[in-house]
């Protein structure tokens, strides 16, 4: 897959408000927050989206969800949403896999 803005954030070529990093993932603030808490959890591995993940990415996918839980716990969030947009028709604009962690306000369903 080609480079993305998230690749530049990973390589620290452009700034981001990074809250957490480990060998597999980083977490940073979304630049256009849609809720009081709006974080992005991304793998260091450049995977375009969930559909592009391979069988050998299954532990990494679980790790990303685990990181979302750790961060939500640390922030004291009880009601929150973790979502990934897969494909332009689902709202994906950056083609580096990411989980959105949203919380801090009532969240409607369905999201639209
Ligand atoms: P999606 O539309 O699901 O692909 O989500 C991409 C998200 O990345 C959006 O919520 C954007 O606000 C966010 N975003 C885009 N550029 C940046 C950036 N430089 N730093 C942080 N978040 C960004």
Secondary structure topology:
Layout: H1 5-10, E1 18-21, E2 25-29, E3 37-43, H2 58-75, E4 80-83, E5 99-103
Antiparallel strand pairs: 1-2, 2-3, 3-5, 4-5
The structure holds adenosine monophosphate (AMP).
Describe this structure in words.
With 112 residues, the chain is α+β, with helices and mostly antiparallel strands. Helix content is 21%, strand content 22%. The chain has a single domain, classed as 2-Layer Sandwich (HIT family, subunit A). It has two helices and five strands, in the order αβββαββ. A five-stranded antiparallel beta sheet has the order 1-2-3-5-4, with helices on one face. The longest helix is centred in the middle third of the chain and has 18 residues, at 58-75. It binds adenosine monophosphate (AMP). Residues 5, 16, 30-32, 40, 85, 91-94 line the site of adenosine monophosphate (AMP).
Query: What count of structural domains?
Result: 1
Shape label: globular
Strand order of the largest sheet: 1-2-3-5-4
Largest sheet: 5 strands, antiparallel
How are helices and strands ordered from N to C? HEEEHEE
Q: Count the helices. How many? A: 2
- Give the strand content: 15-25%
- Content-based structural category: alpha+beta
CATH H level, superfamily name: HIT-like
Beta strands, count: 5
Radius of gyration: 13 Å
């Amino acid at each position: 897959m080609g480079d993305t803005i998230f690749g530049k954030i990973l390589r620290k070529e452009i700034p981001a408000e990074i809250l957490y990093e480990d060998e597999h993932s980083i977490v940073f603030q979304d630049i256009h927050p849609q809720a009081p808490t709006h974080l992005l959890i991304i793998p260091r591995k450049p995977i375009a989206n969930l559909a592009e993940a391979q069988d050998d990415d299954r532990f990494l996918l679980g790790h990303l969800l685990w990181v979302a839980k750790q961060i939500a716990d640390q922030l004291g969030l009880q009601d929150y949403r973790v979502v990934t947009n897969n494909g332009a028709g689902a709202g994906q604009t950056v083609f580096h896999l990411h989980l959105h962690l949203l919380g801090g306000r009532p969240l409607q369903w369905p999201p639209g």
